[in-house]
Amino acid sequence: MRTAHRTLIFALGLVTLLGGRSAAIGAGLAARPGSSTPVIMSVTPATPAPAKDPQILRIGGQGFQGRLKLVITTPGGGTIELKDDAILQQRDSGFQVAVLLATAGKYALVVTNPDGGVSAPFVIEARAVAKPPTPVIQRVMPEELTKHPEPQSLTVDGQN
Fold it and tell me: Which of 11, 16, 55, 121 has the greatest count of CB atoms below 10 A from its CB?
């Protein structure tokens, strides 16, 4: 009875951590006895930019079994499930997936192994990248150039 109580507290704490939007993830943490314990330790890029097209995420960790499933909870509370052919270059210590991160915000990644082992959520945040200011040429000196066989010096004034 005491072990079941600890598991319940952990699962409820996880649901609270994710803001209550991912009750299915918290409920799914009750792994079968003797199941594996996959662990997500890193995601590259760590802070991807939102994009219109899928981008490759490299998931690093340990205990990943063949035919695993990756469930991603989106900032809006939806889920993306990736498995089978969507899991690329899979090894015990990592794999790659092409994921559409369409909006800025936090995404929670959870791996489920075929034996029922479930990882804790690993949260990444997609953030828009600020564009650098556009360079502006205001003046080139000398104003008139003449054809000459030797290199000539030019001075370019501007901003950014």
Answer: 121
Measured distance CA(68)–CA(120) in Å, rounded: 14
Where do runs of H (alpha helix) occur along 18-129?
23-27
The string of pLDDT tens digits covering residues 41-98 is 999 999 999 999 999 999 999 999 999 999 999 999 999 999 999 999 999 999 999 9
pLDDT digits (tens, 9 = 90+) for 8-42: 333 333 333 343 333 334 434 555 667 899 999 99
In order of 27, 102, 103, 138, the CA distances from 127 in angstroms are: 29, 11, 8, 33
Measured CA to CA, the distance from residue 47 to residue 45 in angstroms comes to: 6
Give buried/exposed letters for 46-66 (b at 16+ CB in 10 A, else e): eebebeeeeeebebbbebbbe
d(CA 97, CA 82): 8
Q: Please count the helices (runs of H) and the strands (runs of E) in the chain.
A: 2, 10
